[in-house]
Design goal:
- By secondary structure, this protein is an alpha+beta fold.
- It has two domains: 6-51 and 112-228, CofE-like (60s Ribosomal Protein L30, Chain: A, 2-Layer Sandwich); 54-109, no CATH class.
- It contains six helices and twelve strands.
- The radius of gyration is 19 Å and the shape is globular.
């Protein structure tokens, strides 16, 4: 059966350092949008702001900060960009950003993004009385051989990020042998497209009708790939220390 997913970007006031994030979310979202089996997409940047994840430009140069924050520093690639691995993502600059920083500081990723997502989810479930609620922390990144950024999942809570299709039949009745669907990143890409990247002031989006399995215990281990098992490891293995 075909399902229809609806994405509603939420335009908000500017989120300031010191603001209560859960209160900000509840104040910003139309109460009629909160329903069972809803997913809230939220840009990781305002989570970082809520958690005071800043570094002053006066304290450290960006290259040094990137090396400090990266889980793995893979080296400098094209256009002087530093390629890193951070929180299980391969992306430039360990996710460090200066855009939309109110006081011009560097904004860093949350220290524990999965814990942050679950904390937001638990607080919203209690306040709203919703059982099946998902939370998706998003960012954007570039990819090889393509211009432009796409949304990506930094962390999530409340639903399984992967759908295993192995054993299901294709349209000709042949069983699928390899196919797994990356649900979380697919949703993040769709949400970020609607939320925007510049001055849209849409750091939130409500996703309804998404074909996901809601759960209190997402199977991260089935979704995340250890580096030594990654099919792309030969491209960067020589850079790892």
């Amino acid at each position: 059966m075909t399902k229809t997913m609806m994405i509603t970007p939420i335009q908000t006031d500017v989120f300031h350092q010191g603001d209560d994030l859960v209160e900000f979310i509840i104040r910003s979202v139309d109460p009629l949008l909160w329903k069972e089996k809803t997913i809230l997409a939220i840009t990781s940047k305002i989570v970082s702001i809520a958690e005071n994840r800043f570094e002053s430009l006066a304290n450290i140069d960006k290259k040094s900060l990137i090396r400090r924050e990266a889980d793995h520093y893979l080296g400098e690639i094209g256009h002087g960009v530093s390629l890193t691995i951070k929180h299980g993502l391969m992306l430039p600059a360990a996710g460090i950003d200066e855009s939309n920083s109110e006081h011009g500081d560097y904004i860093l990723y949350p220290l524990e993004p999965y814990a942050s997502a679950e904390k937001i989810r638990s607080a919203l479930r209690e306040r709203l009385g919703i059982k099946d609620l998902g939370v998706l922390l998003t960012d954007s990144r570039t990819g090889p051989l393509r211009l432009g950024v796409t949304g990506v999942t930094l962390s999530l809570a409340g639903f399984h990020p992967l759908r295993n299709m192995i054993g299901q039949e294709d349209i000709f009745g042949r069983p699928l042998k390899m196919t797994k669907i990356n649900v979380a990143d697919s949703l993040a890409a769709s949400a970020v497209l609607m939320m925007g990247e510049a001055n849209e002031r849409c750091p939130l989006a409500i996703l309804s009708g998404a074909n996901v399995e809601f759960t209190d215990h997402p199977c991260r281990k089935d979704w995340e790939v250890e580096m030594d098992e990654d099919m792309y490891l030969p491209l960067y293995k020589h850079l790892l220390k």
